[in-house]
Specification:
single chain; 2 helices; about 220 residues; 5-stranded mixed beta sheet
Length: about 220
Amino acid sequence: MKKIVMTALGLVALGFSSISLATPVYSGNTVADFGTNPGNVSDTAAGFYIWSDSSHENWSVRWSGNDFGTKYIYDWFGTIELTSLVDGSVKEVKFEYADSIRSFVDIFDDQDFIAFNGVAGKGWDGFDFSIDTSIAAVVDFELGSSMFSDMVAGPYAQESMAIYIGQDFDAPLVQVQERSGGRIVQRFETVPEPGTLLLMATGLLGMGATRLRHRKS
């Protein structure tokens, strides 16, 4: 039984490693204490803002076209793919104009999705959601905006444009992709704590099991 558990954990670690290679993985701090919105809109750059609370279970996504007091109207859209979305946890925050959001739980081999569209300028729009961190969760962000129209799609990781994460507004590495109609999205993944620790422990267990087998042989 012990061998079966070790083998399964090793396969899980390999599986998540292969996912991580597909798109850049942000492993920095996601925690912030912004309340509803990340500060005064007139003091921040236009773009997407993403953060979690200290438990890494509750997440917020916001967007604004207010660029240090200069107001621009942009289209905002995207999807978030994950495996641990808490059903019913997706909540709109101050939606404007024709914004819409949909969430799907346990679609396509237990994959969960959040899909959103919006138009926003001066104000903050966005949504909150919660995840179950008791499992090794990978959150795949695919964020698009008409403000990204000059970005060039390509297979290699590059620094993001107008995406800010956590208290320090970190810029993740992203893969720029083109969708139908020439819409540009920036894609990256993050492994929320304690999922990161769980993945590391899983990898170490797999290595330990391999070393033990070599000693016995």
